[in-house]
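Holo model, zinc ion. Inputs:
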Amino acid sequence: MGTSTGLQCCPKLLEGIDELERQRGLDVKPEAVPTLLRQCGDFKALAEGKRVHAYLVRARYHRDRYFGNLLVEMYGKCGSVEDARAVFESMQARNVYSWTMMIAAYAQNGCYREAVRMMHRMDLEGAKADKITFVAVLDACSSLGDLSTGRRLHDRVLGFLDSDVVLCTAVLNMYGKCGSVDDAKSVFERMTNRDVVAWNAMVAAYAQNGHCRKAFKLFARMAAEKVAPNKSTYVSLLDACSSMAGISKGRELHGLVDRAGFLRDRVVRCAVINMYGKCGSVDEARQVFEAFPDRDVALWNSMIAAYAQNGQGEMSLQVFERMKEATNNARPNAITFVHVLCACSHARLIERGRSYFGSMETVFGIQPSSQHYRCMIDLLGRSGNLDQAWNILHSMPLEPDSLAWTTMLSACRAHSNVELGELCAERLFEMEPEYSAPYVLLSNIYAARDRWDDVARIRKLMADKGVKKPSGRSSIEVGDKVHEFVAGDRAHPRREEIYQELSRLGSQMKALGYIQDRSSALRDGEEEEKEQMLWYHSEKLAIAFGSVATPARKSLYVIKNLRVCTDCHTASKFISRITGREIVLRDPYRFHHFRDGWCSCGDYW
Ligand code: ZN
Ligand code: ZN
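Output:
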């Protein structure tokens, strides 16, 4: 948001500053200053805030602690941490408010480490933190995912905790964000009075850590304890549905927020669209999107993303073109371009992708981030222009991160390019020795070239370094329950039927010409063992279960925690053809929509 937008809402602010400047030289106490500074902060009017600051300097009030604190707060809200820091450092006598405002300034502007460091310095200088300070630092720890600092803060605030719902919620929130759900739960259960914010924090803690069923149980308990859910409750639950492909729960929530009148809220609507997009139902996302004409950047982005993630690149770009023509204040931002470039990549629109990428800075004034460069590497790599992708990788203004190298390596895998693949993998082995993906990808490349000695060498390297491939898990929603499978899983009550279905599908597939792709088997064991292992991958089990447990021709939505292997991808194509079902398979990288023997990803992932 620019300075001018804020001021349009507040002409009084400008008048007030003019008036203040006219008073210069008169020996009066600047009564208007606190209000003006607060308004500058609220409207993010940095230039005007600086004028008030300049006035205070001229009137020699700037060394006053009271005004100093207000200035730190104003600069923090206006996003200028440097100015806030300069005022803070020049203050002669600070109080707890000064420290807290400086910490808040850091935290609000994404400088979480500095916020935590500021608290250490506060301790060293003997200043005593209060609840508000603790809440600000706990929030910073949440954003950093810094559990150990968070725990130390928890110990320090134990004394206040009982009485203070805001502080308790900040502690609970910190545990949730740092991935320690049990700690969050124990804080929550010990709270004597919980408001809806506390309930929401607990729902979010479950949802964000993949305990989706628990999130919904807690939601039911809220109703039982007569706590009315608000918009944030629904946003967290909708996000939970996205992560577990719980489309039926998601539809239910959509109905609930609609009836509560919350769909008018853009944040809620965005969550509904994201939920449908992530659950693979783009049409439903589109209906919600079209139903309300007031759209902000986030809503446009959600719709563009829903199409892009689901492999409908052209549709995604159509929405983007509409967005550019829309008259309201929805100018594309950096996130828009991530989705747009991803859409180009899906639709293999290399030239358009290049031109959008080029327009980012020249037309929209957005500097491409490493994420945008990664999209370009993906776009070029997918189409087989590995040399050009390699050049992009080396033209990044910042040192390429491991994600960029992994994207390049994936492109090499898709085109079985050993030379560049080895270079990428070696680089990644140095950067993140524990990271299993490069070992697996490189070994896939060797396998595709029948270089089994090299496959064995990589396997040994992994074992020597103690690198473990995380185990694959797939989940599918049937009825209103989510069923999770691991490879070779025999824990499911309907295992007999599942394995029978798999072998039935297997023989039909073979009749249609399916040949198992063993390049995905990392182990170089007995042929038969390899065949067995691949055949019982978690996604196949989930699909077979969906096939026996749902009516014929019903679409299946499966979520996999790791990249889908080549063999499961091929098998899913065959199964979609044999069963006449649409199969949506989502992995952390993209969606695969299998329909009648084809996949929306065009066999590149
Ligand atoms: Zn597989
Ligand atoms: Zn695919």
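The longest strand covers residues 473-478. The mean pLDDT is 88.
Archived with the compound record.
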